Amino acid sequence: MINLLANPGFEDGVGGGWAAGCAAAGCIRPAPSTVARSGRASALLRASPNRWELSWLRQRVPLAQPCRLRFSAFVRAADGTDGLPAAELQLAVRSAAADAPLCRLERRWPARAWEQLVLDCPLPSAATDAEASIELVSVRSDAAALVDEARLWCASEGEEEAGGKDGGAGAASSAAAVPRLLHFIFGLSADFGGKPFGLVHHLVIAAAQHAAAPVATYFYYAHEPSGEWWEAAKPSLALRKVVAPTSVFGRPVRKFAHQADVLLSFGGIYLDLDGVGGSIGVGNALMLTPRNHSFFREWYEAYRAFSDAVWNGFSVRLPSRLAAAAPSSAPSSVRVLAYGAFYWPPWNPWGVAQLYRSERCLLRGGYAVHLWETKLLLTPADGAVASAAGGGQPCGDDAGEACAGWAGAGECSRNPGFMERSCRRSCGLCGGGSAAGGNTTVNSW
Question: Which residue ranges does the record assign to the ShKT domain (predicted)?
């Protein structure tokens, strides 16, 4: 076996043939020999808890002729990493002959003992070079990993294929496929927004797992839930602790609808824990995507101009505009389904009453149902479901302090369906009767 990589054990630091890239100073650096597998040197990749981050080491090598490449490296979690972060290590092989990575191996998070990741990658006949890449992908987590003894070689005909396996810890994937991963986000505030983990949340997770048969179900949290139903759900989840962001590109973030970016990093299926076209935008309570999709990159980059003065401006209206901006290409890359696929019954008083009162099947032609948790949170203790669904709730600003700003920005008239139910006081609807009654029909999220 001839190793095609220079400086495979990082004895010459993180240079010596390797190119390195990350967002902050010191996020890739040599590690002391005392922690190296070889006893000589290794590389340390560290992520910031305050951002989405991709840190990488890459090395491009010329090839005399195409072959079946084998790429391997020893990895382990660095000392001091807090629990199981929302991060993963990846090996990837690229070539100038192809736009996307040819092969990729994803390791959800290694233990603190050294293990070897091995990736097999047949190259196209036109390939005259190959780039080996070691990547740390992290979503707002304090994650750090050590890498040592990287190797890249042309496997012989008699050499058994690794098949992208690493003892079940990781899996090879296609860049164009939607990974069979479920992502749930909960507990970004210490009081859980006044809605602690309960029976409905447990059932939503169980139903999604039954329908999607995922390889893994990731549960991202800043504050871990507790209670009977959490203990029932917990064994089926891969827990990932995150730091809830307070800003994005230097702009303050106050609402949880703007605090989820795991799909850009890992791909898969994101679902709200209470789970499209309309007059306002597209809902994002259920999204399926390959990893690092161009649409999600463009959406994320647009947050450089972020403002939450309009509650749904960046999470609902903006993606609708992005999908419509390039009509020649958007249909093939972004598919927006009809409202009824995920959002029927709607969230107005009639829809909520249908959801909790009707004995008819409401899901005909749909893929999921949205329980509209912001409108009504029911637990087994509520008992009188019909009464709770029918109204009788106090008049006020259910959506909190942001209501005044949204009202000042004109949302009471532009988005009456939400504002009349969630910001009645700021819209001047308290004390005057039934402005938020059952007559308003809003065909949007």
Answer: 395-430
